[in-house]
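BUG: 3D viewer hangs when loading the predicted structure for this chain

Environment: internal workstation, default settings.
Expected: structure renders.
Actual: progress bar stalls at 90%.

Input used:
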Amino acid sequence: MNLTTNKNKQCGVVAIEFALVIIPLMIIVFGITEFGRAFTQYNTIAKSARDAARYLSTQAPGNATGQQDTAACIAVYGEGYTSCSGAGLLPGLTTAMVQICDATSPINCPNNLASNNGVGTNMVTLTIGGDPAPYSFVSFVPFIVPNINFGPISVTMPQAT
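Structure tokens produced before the viewer hung:
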């Protein structure tokens, strides 16, 4: 039996198997990577919304000293950036996507949450994204993972009086 003849017949099989397996493998790898990026961006927005709502929870209701503008800056640029300068946390995230609801601005409030007519605790709700301006995750490989519009991300906390 001639071993070299059988070995030569098998040489091309490995290359063909590799070519057939590499395409689905690359699709899976890019899909996992893109969903990981989308999850990271969603988590970044959720954390920045919590930070901004935490800042507003220490302030009195209203925008007398520009605290709502400061909270919007915190939500977009990060906890240490109250002046809306520098690079934003995520590409495409703007202060126009931030909505604030408290006892003095109940127009942005879901179910009149903040307007308790002076009874109980005032609440503040900070929402990023949503109906007027959703945040969009832009995929590097949209043919594998399409662009995703995140729904509104809201945080509600008790507010100082």
